[in-house]
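Section 3.1 - Work completed
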Amino acid sequence: MRKPIVAGNWKMNKTIAEATDLVAGIKRELSEPVDVDVVLCPPYTTLKSVGEEIKGSQIDLGAQNMHWAESGAYTGEVSASMLREVFCHYVILGHSERRQYFAETDESVNKKAKAALAAGLLPIVCVGETLEQREAGDTEKVVEAQVRGSLADLGADGMLKTVVAYEPVWAIGTGLTASPEQAQEVHAFIRGILADMVDETVAQSVRIQYGGSMKPSNAKELMGQPDIDGGLIGGAALDAKSFAEIIRAAC
């Protein structure tokens, strides 16, 4: 049985004061234990503060990106060991916004995933098609290329420590959401690719999240699908009550 995982991607939002207020609200909302892995991924500037706020709670800390190199002349970047130093457990890699605005490729995401795993971080690797690609009937072609490229050569052990997040680009921040049936279809397709890349046992153990305008009103139906193992939450993660409702829907 795969344990659900719900991660909040705060993107470029929240000052340190706002971040600690939000964490306090989430902790109040989650006063009772939940059988869900809960992850908060705030901006770099608030990682240390958020980490201190969640210490001793059921919440893990994650980052939104990292570089594949351990150190060097990479202005504006951070390494996996730097994230580990502030007690990050997870890192989001290959988010569509990184691919779109910062020219990230499957190859660079793969290098990051390997560096994350080597440092003891658990990667959340994002894949997903644009609206144009879906309308052209290319969803499976695009998603398969991203899965195979981004997760290449991780091996069974690495794959088992990796979370895949299916985020249809057309549903991120648009208010549009894939229907539960559409989302399940792609999640099952991804699981089939993982089985081909490694084996069926590993594929059945890897957690695949859905991201793309998941909110309290649709979370339960989406996460009730057999191959959807949680959510990577954007806008709704910036509200303590909404985020907690989505987490409870995953139970």
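Second construct:
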Amino acid sequence: MKKKLCIFIFLFLCLTPICLTGCSARENTVVSGAGYEFSIPGDFTEVDVEGFECFYSADDGSSINVNIQAADPSFEAVSAELLNSTLASVLSQTYHTEIAVTDNAFSREPVCGYPAYQYSFSYTLQGDKITQTVIGVNAGRCYTFTYTDMAGTWADAFEGSIQSINFTTD
């Protein structure tokens, strides 16, 4: 039950799309936080959103965010099946309609030598296809990087950002 509650809290905080505006084109930004750094595409602007280590948004509502929680001993049990069923349930409850989640990819490649998973999925909400990629890293604490593509145009930029993730923590 505790594992499901942690996953529910994570999903509620990280996966609800937020549409914000006010961005301007600029060079990629390197973001440094509590034990990590990575680059953000230039079209994303930092927004202060409670509950997130950092949150960046583009004009089209796409976003990138980082959430940090205490290390979870059940981290290794996370699977595509668990994430898919939990996401479908949370999204359906959040939006009061049945939402099917489509798995795009799941892998367990380490990030900077730390245990990690990467899960890419998509779903349709009010006729719009939304694609999200979640990178969970167990690096002393549980770091979750969430990339939400509302327009279907950010795949290459997000991949570059994901590849730039680096940890400075021990």
